[in-house]
Prior knowledge:
Elements lengths: L5 E5 L16 E5 L10 E5 L20 E3 L17 E3 L6 H17 L1 H7 L17 E5 L3 H10 L5 E6 L3 E3 L2 E5 L3 H5 L4 E4 L13 H6 L5 E4 L8 H9 L4 E4 L19 E3 L10 H18 L6 E3 L15
Parallel strand pairs: 1-2, 1-3, 3-4, 4-5, 6-7, 6-10, 7-9, 10-11, 11-12, 12-13
Antiparallel strand pairs: 5-14, 8-9
Amino acid sequence: MAADPAVVTLPDDRWLELWEPGSAPPLDLHPWDLLGPPPADPRFVVLPYADPRAQLDRLAGLRSLRVVQTLSAGYEHVLPHLPDGVLLCNAAGVHDASTAELAVGLALAAQRGFEDFALARPRGRWAAGTRASLADRRVLLVGTGGVGSAIAARLAPFEVELVRVGRTARDDAQGHVHAVAELPRLLSAAEIVVLAVPLDASTRGLADAAFLAAMPDGALLVNVARGPVVVTDALVAELRGGRLRAALDVTDPEPLPPGHPLWTAPGTFLSPHVGGDTTAFPPRARRLLRDQLERFAAGRPLLRVVAGGDGRPVTAARSVDR
């Protein structure tokens, strides 16, 4: 006698139609946003995307749970709630293009004064004047993963002088990658610094007071990584002094509370953590979920496994008994 189909939860009804009728794998799909009561014995849970209401501590009570899948590349917020023996998979690759678009857009907006133009229009003021270009700027890109690589590809047509930094020094098809240990020397020549690293113990507080002090006067910091990669108080001090500028899609804290000094810091351009939230997200996420759930149903190795239940990174594809 065949076993009952494994129960899979998806964030809401919009995600249930992943396959054409008659072509779905043998799985029992249910909407669950981690707020109401869960379906009985879910084995695979897809977390809501960027929903601060999600009650991740509810994962601990799911005794049949085998896999947790995020719809974001970041997963550090899930690790404290991941039960023993459960695989955690992220959505690396889904948001690379959109986040890279925004990183370049933030740099352009800050360099070319887009916010000034937007504020001048309702006043009927013609805000002409010479602005800084993106072309010919020395750009230091910190992070060479999926998002970092996508940013590098999109910067190429802008004729920048690009220097890339990764965890270790190496050479690849695009040239040389410098090690993080070289940052103090590299920062002193960077006119624009773009942060595109994951948040972990090695990157939390990476852009601290010393990091920022090493940047030259007038330099621009672009952050599309995670807010805690930057030490906020140190950045605010540099912005208030007028020495540095910033274009931030992520902040610490997040969302910024009313009255936070970043709202009024001079030389600051803010977007509300929208790097990956574009029309490109749903179809790319659906393709990922179809692939993962077909693998799960067939007992094949899963992709993008980032932790194996003990919080330690996992680099190889992993399968799981469904």
